[in-house]
Specification:
Number of helices: 6
Order of helices and strands: HEEHHHHH
Number of domains: 1
Distance between the termini: 12 Å
Mean pLDDT: 94
Radius of gyration: 15 Å
CATH class: Mainly Alpha
Shape: globular
CATH architecture: Orthogonal Bundle
Structural class: mainly alpha
Largest sheet: 2 strands, antiparallel
Strand content: under 5%
Number of strands: 2
Length: about 170
């Protein structure tokens, strides 16, 4: 778990970029891929653990530019993806099961992060209430869908190549 968490930190720190047309404060990084791999290989709570390790280490070393609110957002997004995706994949360990798991995980993440941003995260940033709804519809929801789908595609092509490592371990 520590190794996957460390890989997540490295991916988060060294490969992060904004996705046009979304606001610059919403950046994509493939740091969730190790957590998705963990939840597929060992179960959803291992994916959550990898997310926690990644976020805590990245926050401790100052790699999360958005501070504690950004760290919380990153953890909530990753955990809300890992839990449903991990449970669904555990019930159907096929390529089709993996695709369904990641699509459902992506939708759950987009909805969860919309709610978290509406009620918690954006108000903590001091975003005026009248602007929050517009941000959710135009940026938060679609960004989280795109972000998780990109990570899903990367995981889909990577997981089958490395799953034997986890089976041997």
């Amino acid at each position: 778990m520590a190794l996957l968490g460390a890989i997540g930190v490295m991916l988060m720190v060294f490969i992060a970029f904004p996705i046009p047309p979304f606001p610059d404060f919403l950046t994509y990084d493939p740091g969730d891929v190790p957590a998705i791999i963990a939840c597929f290989a060992m179960g959803p709570w291992y994916g959550v653990l990898v997310q926690a390790i990644k976020v805590l280490v990245a926050f401790a070393v100052g790699a999360i530019k958005a501070g504690p609110i950004g760290a919380l957002a990153n953890f909530l997004a990753g955990a809300s993806f890992a839990i449903p995706a991990g449970y669904i994949y555990r019930m159907n360990r096929t390529k089709k099961g993996a695709v369904i798991a990641m699509v459902v995980g992506s939708i759950v993440t987009a909805v969860t992060m919309s709610l978290c941003n509406y009620f918690i995260l954006l108000p903590f940033w001091g975003i005026p209430t009248e602007q929050i709804g517009g941000l959710i519809v135009t940026a938060i929801f679609p960004f989280n869908l795109v972000k998780t789908l990109i990570s899903s595609v990367i995981t889909f092509f990577l997981y089958k190549r490395i799953k034997n490592f986890f089976e041997e371990a």
